Amino acid sequence: MKELLYIIEIMTIVLGLEGTAWNLSAAVVSEEDVLYDAESTYMPLQGGIHPREAAQHHASEMKDVVSRALRAVKEEGILLKHIDAIAYSQGPGLGPCLRTVATAARALSTSLKIPLIGVNHCIAHIEIGRWRCGAIDPVVLYVSGANSQVLAYRAGRYRVLGETLDIGIGNAIDKFARYLGLSHPGGPKIEQLASKSTNYVPLPYIIKGMDLSFSGLSTAAKDATDSHPAEKADICYSFQETAFAMLTEVSERAMAHCSRDELLLAGGVGANKRLQQMLQLMCRDRGARFYVPEARYLKDNGSMIAYVGLIMYKHGDITPLEQSGVNPHFRPDDVKVTWRKNESFKT
Amino acid sequence: MIIQCAEAIVELNGDLVYKRRIEKRYRVKELDTRIRKERTKSEAKLISEARRKGVPTPIIFDVQDHELVMERIEGDLAREVIDVAISERIGELVGILHRNSIIHGDLTTSNIIVGHDKIIYFIDFGLAFIESNVETKGVDVHVFFQSLRGTHESHDHLKESFVKGYKRSFPTAAAQVLKRVAEIERRGRYARQSKTESAKVTAQ
Ligand SMILES: Nc1ncnc2c1ncn2[C@@H]1O[C@H](COP(=O)(O)OP(=O)(O)O)[C@@H](O)[C@H]1O
Ligand SMILES: [Mg+2]
Predict the structure, then answer these.
(1) If you take atom 23 of ligand 1, which residue's CA is the nearest one?
(2) Residues in chain A, pLDDT under 50
(3) What's A13's domain CATH number?
(4) Interface check B87 vs A, CB under 8 A
(5) Which of B113, B169, B88, B139 has the alpha carbon at shortest distance from A163?
(6) pLDDT attached to residue A346
(7) Are A170 and A295 in contact (CB under 8 A)?
(8) Does the active-site annotation cover B124?
(9) Which of A306, B36, B115, B138 is the most exposed place for a label (fewest CB within 10 A)?
(10) Close Cβ partners of A34 (under 8 Å, ≥ 6 residues apart)
């Protein structure tokens, strides 16, 4: 017991807050593990997410989510005084939600007199994946609602090698789901419908180098639904097969172009089993390793924010109050990566 | 020597190169067959078209459903040897392609060979097509810039010299295309996110 207490005293421990969109989450992470992740999800009554309502949800749930996380770790002997820093997602995301979370983080940091650390949400998805899976220097496929990007680390930054030229894959799926009259979130329901068919209806497959475009696919899928309303499952199947093959192809292109033999999947759409299967097959066929973290780290979570906060803290990378403003358009390649300097890679 | 690259298996055999678009098991068969056929056919067509317009490319000797046989270019990938002079020449050649409405579709430094004869050759026209509007040319140039940022140290200088070459061979529309490139990059930065917000769609 004495020994345990000693470890707690010297180990870095960070509280992280995530709330870029509909999921609010607070997590406590130590150098060794995720200690606890508490969350509360905003459920829109209908349609998609309403940014202001989501922000109100976050504001009213914040206290509860944070104290649930703190209470849980207290049972393991970790008290407020053991927490070294407050990390929060600074962007990208919905402005009102980001501001709510940043305000709470600033208040905690001020009252506990510990540093504040602004974390890029996309980088957090990447780093928690690397940590949980042990990937070393992978090409990353990051697929979420608003974003679809292929990235790789080079010379101090995660470089975007390719991305969607119009809408993100998650939003494309959700929009199509709404068109079919499926309730939010539509992704899992489309996946389920798709699994009932093996009948492929041709849909537009559009890639430009390592960039992608989903809007043409979206429109064509809606048109196909209008002319064949009885064949919903076939169209869901074809939609997935087309979109995911595009994502798999650009991942493979990126791996060939950067000579990497690891691929890491990140972001909420990564939970789709068919997408995982395609990427796995592609990697196997080119003798590469494929990594995908547990589902709880694919969706938005506070653990990833706390974890990146922790490695930034350990590298002296903290955020002064006057630079703690949120950035709804925060890009991964805006972030100077301070924590990978001592790793050695081919470039 | 056999190379497994982005989408094909390339066999370098003496003076010849066999490029075979192999089956991708992750793709539905029907889609896979369609893609491999279409790309092989249009690659053969546009690689020759580009050469006719003055952009060095390998000569095509044979075309089958999923396979091309072409001239082997002795040299290094631009990825390994690119400098500002080479980038300027690349810009000039892309200007010639665009002047003739040829969109390469996959402009990266892995798809350009700097020959031992110092000539710069363009390869891999699988995603190429003919189109004359500003947007497609803008995306083409954007893809090239993105590949520079992704893989090269002094990408800003390389970009600058590319622009110099591009303007020289395509004086009539280069400025307009480059303006569009900046717009495409801004779009990647801002438009999607704010659209997301106002359209009240889903999450990150
Ligand atoms: N004509 C050629 N002469 C010499 N090398 C070639 C030739 N064509 C292709 N290669 C080599 O094979 C690699 C892959 O060819 P490419 O046509 O780009 O296929 P992919 O579409 O799979 O990227 C090139 O990067 C280059 O190293
Ligand atoms: Mg290539």
Answers:
(1) B6
(2) 345-347
(3) 3.30.420.40
(4) no
(5) B139
(6) 41
(7) no
(8) no
(9) B115
(10) A27, A28, A303, A306, A307
Burial class (CB in 10 A: 0-12, 13-18, 19+), B34: middle
Would the CA dihedral through B143, B148, B150, B151 be positive or negative?
positive
In this structure, CATH architecture of domain B2-193: Orthogonal Bundle (1.10)
What six digits make up the tokens of A184? 């939010």
Helix (H/G/I), strand (E/B), else coil: B36: helix
The verdict on A7 and A96 lying in the same domain is: yes
CB A61, CB A53: distance < 8 Å? no
A329–B189 CB contact, under 8 Å: yes
Q: Are A112 and A274 in contact (CB under 8 A)?
A: no
Rounded-to-integer distance, Cα A308 and Cα A89, Å: 10
Kindly tell me the burial class for residue B20, based on how many C-beta atoms sit within 10 Å of its own C-beta (0-12, 13-18, 19 or more): middle
Instruction: Tell whether A253 and A104 lie within a shared domain.
Output: no
d(CA A190, CA A271): 13
Question: pLDDT tens for residues B110-166?
Answer: 999 999 999 999 999 999 999 999 999 999 999 999 999 988 888 999 999 999 999
Residue A131 lies in a domain: no
What are the b/e assignments for A9-18, b being 16+ CB within 10 Å?
Answer: eeebbbbbbb
Q: What is the pLDDT of residue B189?
A: 67
Report the DSSP beta bridge partners of residue A33. none
- Cα–Cα distance measured from residue A87 to residue A89, given in angstroms and rounded to the nearest whole number: 7
Q: What's the length of chain B?
A: 204
Relative orientation angle of helices A187-194 and A169-179, to the nearest 10 degrees: 70
The mean pLDDT value for B176-202 works out to: 66
Ligand 2 centroid to residue A202 C-alpha, Å: 25
CB-based contacts of B45, cutoff 8 Å, min separation 6: none
Residues in B 12-71 with any Cβ partner in A closer than 8 A: 24-28, 30-31, 34-35
Predicted TM-score (pTM) of this structure: 0.93
Task: For residues B82 and B59, give the distance between their C-alpha atoms in angstroms, rounded to a whole number.
Answer: 23
What pLDDT, on a 0 to 100 scale, did the predictor assign at position B5?
A: 85
The protein residue whose alpha carbon is closest to atom 1 in ligand 1 is B72
> Does the residue A344 lie in any domain?
no
Does A94 lie at the interface with B, CB-CB under 8 angstroms?
yes
Residue A161 in contact with partner chain B when CB distance is under 8 A: yes
Same domain for A312 and A249? no
Ligand 1 centre and the CA of B182: distance in Å?
30
